[in-house]
Design goal:
CATH topology of the largest domain: Aspartate Aminotransferase, domain 2
Number of helices: 16
Strand content: 5-15%
Number of domains: 2
Number of strands: 13
Strand order of the largest sheet: 3-9-8-7-6-4-5
Helix content: 40-55%
Order of helices and strands: HHEEHHEHEHEHEHEHEEHHHHEHEEEHH
Bound molecules: pyridoxal-5'-phosphate
CATH superfamily of the largest domain: Type I PLP-dependent aspartate aminotransferase-like (Major domain)
Shape: globular
Oligomer: single chain
Amino acid sequence: MKDLFERIIKDKGPLGKWAEQAEGYYVFPKLEGAISNRMGFNGKKVITWSINDYLGLANHPEVIKADAAAAAEHGMAYPMGARMMSGHTAFHEQLEQECADFVSKEAAYLVNFGYQGMVSAIDALVTKHDVIVYDMDTHACIIDGVRLHAGKRFVYKHNDVESLEKNLQRATKMATENNGGILVISEGVFGMRGEQGKLKEIVALKKKFNFRLLVDDAHGFGTLGKTGAGAGEEQGVQNDIDVYFATFAKSMAGFGAFFAADKDIIQYLKYNMRSQMFAKSLPMAMVKGALKRLDMLRTMPELKEKLWENVNALQSGLKENGFNIGNTNTCVTPVFLEGDIPEAMAMVQDLRENYGIFCSIVVYPVIPKGMILLRLIPTAAHTLEDVSETIIAFSAIRDKLKEGVYKRIAATMM
Ligand SMILES: Cc1ncc(COP(=O)(O)O)c(C=O)c1O
């Protein structure tokens, strides 16, 4: 027998084993100063493309004022206890109704973290008799929710409607045998590569199969659709999403998340979602802050317009300069390059230190071996100057990558 910690200290885990080389720079970097298009990093100013503050609300004076006023009035503790016990207020209810109205659903229920909420909602929505069918590329919160499921699950190829249909055939057989139902789960926007989930096509399958659809629209909420109600609104199928999810942690630049659906379903979640039944409710400062942000989403369409001006300038500029930005049809802007992991690390260091550009870097196993994904998140806080400076920098680092400069630098770093 071993001491449990012996393995933990030795193995460190798949990411932890890189900590010595990466921590403080590639992982756990410290971005300093107010959240904005240009922040401090490693003693310099960098253009920040890695923050999901889509509408530029994080540092908006009205938001800061609302947050500060709510914290001054209530502190950060109020209300204490779980919603069911002593943590319930009229403001929580008001925010729920406003969220529901914003995404055209009957009712909504708040959760403290999108991640935990999703895990718990999946757990609550299905029993061992039910079958889950989900997209292969979904976020960790969906994967972890599915892990809790005691019944059958099928995974379909990413955004592949044919594969979904095949899996729905198998799921239908299984659910019929078990006298259960089927839950299909997709994202509204796949946050790594920026493709919208094919919600229209998924919904069309409801004519052939009997299933309910849960959509995680973390990146679509506030950024897509005429009113900002997300990917469902953008694709004209919002009514056919049975359970809609969005977090406040992206376009709302806040904290917390919500599920929206028909009244009966939300009522069920209120009484069965363990992450909320057994945890303290969302603090009032967050709730009042979210009410303010939601009001701004409704009344300030210019925020989304500015966001899309920047998105369009960045994506068309990259394409005109020969960059491969995949199949994005959202704000998330991936730039695919070819190279190995050490080259990617040397390139990102050059980008940060010598060109003043800070973006996320994604490598194998998230994407295929030999590929490097630089992921850019444009926001309403960026300027067209940020965009042109970035495209010039990207062209320069691509040339260096092709010339083998980063391979040589990486060799000296090993
Ligand atoms: C698709 C998706 N779902 C859920 C979450 C989790 O949301 P939260 O940050 O509120 O826990 C995220 C955040 O990274 C996300 O990208």
